[in-house]
Amino acid sequence: IAFFAPKHLAGQRVLVTAGPTFEAIDPVRGITNLSSGKMGFAIARAAQEAGADVTLVAGPVHLPTPRGVRRIDVQSAQNMLEAVAQQAPEATVFIATAAVADWRPASSAEHKIKKDGSGQVPQLAFVENPDILATVAQSERARAGQLFCVGFAAESENLLAHAQAKRARKGVPLLVGNIGPATFGQDDNALLLVDAHGHRELPRASKRQLAQQLIADIAQRLESSIP
Ligand code: C5P
């Protein structure tokens, strides 16, 4: 039996970030995190199935591109911001699921850093990465209500309070909390949807099902145009 998802995002152009970023130390080393990209890829797939035109900006992950989705592969947070900044003017929905590295090495060596036999270790200095979601959320189109922005949060404690604070700090109408324990790499998850009016939980289910529920929720917000 074929399953046809309701086309409740027809006419929307959805931009999704997914996966970790990779911040180079030298040509063969870098700093990253354990994000698998599964949630973001599931969201891109669900949005495409719901009739949206979908662009997925992906950090280094090992996942197949969902059918019908335009994919742009990037490495660092700066690369991700460039790709997003290029695509955002065309988008009507931006969903930031990527686990963007908060910091990157202040400089990346041109050649592989070698052990010199003296037992000395390299000293790494860090600088802060740009906040991609906050940057997009502050754009004119987002503030004019032409680009609906959704953020994610992975917290180890006080999820509701942190998610509410993050929603306000990032300036987004909807912030989605990953309900722990650590969901990185897992096939299922539970989500906490936090908006200006309150919050509701999407109980534990596969990331595929949660993505479909989240897309349905976002579609409803777009229809009612009540953020
Ligand atoms: O501040 P924090 O990293 O916890 O916020 C998580 C949310 O912000 C996620 O939606 C993530 O994709 C986004 N983010 C971003 N750019 C960053 C850091 C986080 O877009 N540099």
Automatic annotation (TrEMBL):
<dbReference type="GO" id="GO:0015937">
    <property type="term" value="P:coenzyme A biosynthetic process"/>
</dbReference>
<feature type="binding site">
    <location>
        <position position="102"/>
    </location>
    <ligand>
        <name>CTP</name>
    </ligand>
</feature>
<keyword id="KW-0436">Ligase</keyword>
<keyword id="KW-0456">Lyase</keyword>
<comment type="function">
    <text>Catalyzes two sequential steps in the biosynthesis of coenzyme A. In the first step cysteine is conjugated to 4'-phosphopantothenate to form 4-phosphopantothenoylcysteine. In the second step the latter compound is decarboxylated to form 4'-phosphopantotheine.</text>
</comment>
<comment type="function">
    <text>Catalyzes two steps in the biosynthesis of coenzyme A. In the first step cysteine is conjugated to 4'-phosphopantothenate to form 4-phosphopantothenoylcysteine, in the latter compound is decarboxylated to form 4'-phosphopantotheine.</text>
</comment>
<keyword id="KW-0479">Metal-binding</keyword>
<dbReference type="GO" id="GO:0004633">
    <property type="term" value="F:phosphopantothenoylcysteine decarboxylase activity"/>
</dbReference>
<comment type="pathway">
    <text>Cofactor biosynthesis; coenzyme A biosynthesis; CoA from (R)-pantothenate: step 3/5.</text>
</comment>
<dbReference type="GO" id="GO:0010181">
    <property type="term" value="F:FMN binding"/>
</dbReference>
<feature type="binding site">
    <location>
        <position position="112"/>
    </location>
    <ligand>
        <name>CTP</name>
    </ligand>
</feature>
<protein>
    <recommendedName>
        <fullName>Coenzyme A biosynthesis bifunctional protein CoaBC</fullName>
        <ecNumber>4.1.1.36</ecNumber>
        <ecNumber>6.3.2.5</ecNumber>
    </recommendedName>
</protein>
<keyword id="KW-0288">FMN</keyword>
<dbReference type="GO" id="GO:0046872">
    <property type="term" value="F:metal ion binding"/>
</dbReference>
<keyword id="KW-0460">Magnesium</keyword>
<keyword id="KW-0511">Multifunctional enzyme</keyword>
<feature type="region of interest" description="Phosphopantothenate--cysteine ligase">
    <location>
        <begin position="14"/>
        <end position="227"/>
    </location>
</feature>
<keyword id="KW-0210">Decarboxylase</keyword>
<comment type="similarity">
    <text>In the N-terminal section; belongs to the HFCD (homo-oligomeric flavin containing Cys decarboxylase) superfamily.</text>
</comment>
<keyword id="KW-0285">Flavoprotein</keyword>
<comment type="similarity">
    <text>In the C-terminal section; belongs to the PPC synthetase family.</text>
</comment>
<dbReference type="GO" id="GO:0015941">
    <property type="term" value="P:pantothenate catabolic process"/>
</dbReference>
<feature type="binding site">
    <location>
        <begin position="130"/>
        <end position="133"/>
    </location>
    <ligand>
        <name>CTP</name>
    </ligand>
</feature>
<feature type="binding site">
    <location>
        <position position="170"/>
    </location>
    <ligand>
        <name>CTP</name>
    </ligand>
</feature>
<dbReference type="GO" id="GO:0071513">
    <property type="term" value="C:phosphopantothenoylcysteine decarboxylase complex"/>
</dbReference>
<feature type="binding site">
    <location>
        <position position="166"/>
    </location>
    <ligand>
        <name>CTP</name>
    </ligand>
</feature>
<comment type="pathway">
    <text>Cofactor biosynthesis; coenzyme A biosynthesis; CoA from (R)-pantothenate: step 2/5.</text>
</comment>
<feature type="binding site">
    <location>
        <position position="152"/>
    </location>
    <ligand>
        <name>CTP</name>
    </ligand>
</feature>
<feature type="domain" description="DNA/pantothenate metabolism flavoprotein C-terminal">
    <location>
        <begin position="9"/>
        <end position="220"/>
    </location>
</feature>
<dbReference type="GO" id="GO:0004632">
    <property type="term" value="F:phosphopantothenate--cysteine ligase activity"/>
</dbReference>
